[in-house]
């Protein structure tokens, strides 16, 4: 039995919740994953995962062994990475996650540039507006927008964003420009369930005016920032998104920024990664590269 691969299969099954999902994650036949798990349990002479037709659940022994397996795998991978890092050429695969729009606009070009200088390195990029669990999804580096929870992860702040409200010129034509957040209560608005959004209750924060909240009328509700911005450009209503999401539309004159004096609170952007991966050369070099590029980008936008 390949003990190392068996432990990785066990971790994959525990994280994915099923043998078939673990097989897809590892790119291996289902029968191989099932056999590895059975061999591991046979060697340990105990049941690690209770399996029924409806569900799978870790036993008490399985939970203890899972923690030990994670520690062993991460220690070995870090050691292998340090040894490989004695060569100038990076190799292997780096896994990264980022919010969808931010990832598409800023992380994809950055990853492409990094890969172009490291031909033996591959990357796996997972774009999602939910906070992916780095351990469960075996992620090396994550981009986080907003205040960080105390998660035990290492973090580097690389910039900041702010929320911005805007509307199409046609929506504002013939009407007074909103001068206070409360003026939005009787205007059609576009809401979406995304990063930093509060549904139909919008909270504005600024050093001068403090905290102002307004309950808006969602003429349209969508599930992505891109759709919300597109609808705002079409004149459906006022939109409120993160600054980078509306930047192109504002620059092109398709959206007019509103209530900027009520919206100056910085929203942090961080790169986060596990301490156990921090010395792995591909992770260390990518974090250094990405942090420098993102800081440069956001400092130029702040001028």
Automatic annotation (TrEMBL):
The cross-references to SUPFAM superfamilies, in alphabetical order and at most eight, read:
Periplasmic binding protein-like II, Winged helix' DNA-binding domain
Listed Pfam families:
HTH_1, LysR_substrate
Repeat found in the keyword field: no
One annotated GO molecular function is: sequence-specific DNA binding
Per UniProt, the keywords (alphabetical) are: DNA-binding, Transcription, Transcription regulation
Judging by the UniProt lineage, the source's domain of life is: Bacteria
Q: Where is the HTH lysR-type domain?
A: 1-59
This one is known as LysR family transcriptional regulator
Q: What is the lineage of its organism?
A: Bacteria, Pseudomonadati, Pseudomonadota, Alphaproteobacteria, Hyphomicrobiales
């Amino acid at each position: 039995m390949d003990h190392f691969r068996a432990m990785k299969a066990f971790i994959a099954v525990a994280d994915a919740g099923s043998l078939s999902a673990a097989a897809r994650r590892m790119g291996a036949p289902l029968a191989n994953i099932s056999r590895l798990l059975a061999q591991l349990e046979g060697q340990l002479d105990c049941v690690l995962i209770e399996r029924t037709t409806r569900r799978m659940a870790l036993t008490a022994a399985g939970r203890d062994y899972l923690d030990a397996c994670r520690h062993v795998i991460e220690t070995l991978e870090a050691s292998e990475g340090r040894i490989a890092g004695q060569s100038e050429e990076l190799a292997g695969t780096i896994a990264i996650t980022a919010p969808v729009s931010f990832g598409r606009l800023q992380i994809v070009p950055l990853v492409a540039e990094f890969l172009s200088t490291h031909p033996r390195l591959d990357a796996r990029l997972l774009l999602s507006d939910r906070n992916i669990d780095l351990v469960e999804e075996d992620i090396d580096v994550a981009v986080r927008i907003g205040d960080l929870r105390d998660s035990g992860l290492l973090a580097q702040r690389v910039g900041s964003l702010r929320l911005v409200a805007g509307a199409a010129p046609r929506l504002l034509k013939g009407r007074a420009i909103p001068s206070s957040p409360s003026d939005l209560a009787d205007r059609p608005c576009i809401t979406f369930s995304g990063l930093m959004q509060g549904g139909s209750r919008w909270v504005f924060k600024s050093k001068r005016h403090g905290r102002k909240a307004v309950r808006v009328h969602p003429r349209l509700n969508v599930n992505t920032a891109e759709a919300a911005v597109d609808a705002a450009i079409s004149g459906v209503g006022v939109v409120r998104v993160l600054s980078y999401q509306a930047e192109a539309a504002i620059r092109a004159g398709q959206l007019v920024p509103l209530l900027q004096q009520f919206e100056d609170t910085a929203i942090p952007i961080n790169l986060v990664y596990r301490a156990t991966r921090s010395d792995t050369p591909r992770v260390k070099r990518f974090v250094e590269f990405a942090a420098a590029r993102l800081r440069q980008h956001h400092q130029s936008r702040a001028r």
